[in-house]
Amino acid sequence: MAAEAIYCFDTASVRFAIYPEGGGRFVAEIAEDPLRDFFGADGGGDSLVQAYECNAGLINMLAIERHLSSGGRPVRLESSDFEVLEHDG
Question: How many distinct structural domains can be found in the chain?
Answer without folding.
Answer: 1
